[in-house]
Write a structure and sequence with these properties.
Layout lengths: L1 E2 L2 H16 L9 E2 L7 H10 L4 E3 L3 H13 L6 E3 L6 H7 L7 E4 L10 H10 L3 H4 L2 H20 L5 H8 L5 E2 L4 E5 L2 E4 L4 E5 L5 E2 L1
Helix pairs in contact: 7-8
Length: 206
């Protein structure tokens, strides 16, 4: 299930490429209109296909609506979504329906204090319990560190062009357990990814 927009199209292109590489059967694809929670048709299409697993490419509210409706109709296959909805608010909104939901992550687990990056982050937010185990907050923290380092390398009078050039010098730049790489042809920065699961008590575990 995917949103009918550029986000959905980009993610589906990656899915299709991986399916082709692994020589897997063609998936059943159902789309929903962007900026809506009109997922009823998508639920019917996916349920009728009786898949082994369901991948959701969506924002938080339509993802929530799809999970609730799909489970209500008796769909109990494993369900997976992307890191863009990895927030406490989203998980809490699902209630019991969130248990077992697989979520990809593109940043380390904010509870993994074996990483210097996470130790530093948790020390800075320890007075804010709502942020301690938040993936989006850790992502913001890392993004700020990257920007500051880029500005530092830009010199005393940074410009847009200078910042871009400075960040392109990041070659295996270690931010405390998370390595960043940029170049004129690489704007991704990091290729870190791992799969997590929502536990019975609503926490995210690896």
């Amino acid at each position: 299930m995917a949103s009918e927009d550029s986000f959905g199209a980009d993610a589906l292109a990656g899915v299709k490429a991986a399916i082709k590489e692994q020589k897997l059967p063609e998936p059943t694809i159902a789309l929903y209109k962007r900026n809506t929670v009109a997922v009823e048709d998508a639920v019917k299409t996916i349920a009728a296909a009786n898949p082994q697993a369901v991948l959701m490419i969506c924002t938080a509210k339509p993802c929530e609506a799809f999970v609730r409706q799909y489970r209500k109709q008796g769909g109990f296959q494993p369900m997976f979504t992307l890191s863009n909805v990895s927030s406490k608010a989203f998980i809490q909104s699902l209630g019991e329906n969130g248990r077992g939901l697989g979520m990809t992550q593109v940043f380390p687990n904010p509870n993994n204090t074996t990483l210097p990056l996470v130790k530093e982050y948790r020390e800075l937010v320890k007075g804010h319990p709502d942020l301690v185990d938040s993936y989006p907050a850790l992502e913001g923290f890392v993004s700020a560190k990257i920007l500051v380092e880029g500005l530092r390398r830009s010199g005393a009078n940074p410009t847009r062009e200078g910042l871009i050039t400075a960040m392109e010098t990041f070659k295996n730049m270690d931010f405390g357990g998370l390595t960043m790489n940029y170049s004129p042809t690489n704007r991704n920065g990091s290729d870190f990814v791992e799969l997590t699961v929502v536990s019975r008590n609503g926490t995210v575990v690896r």
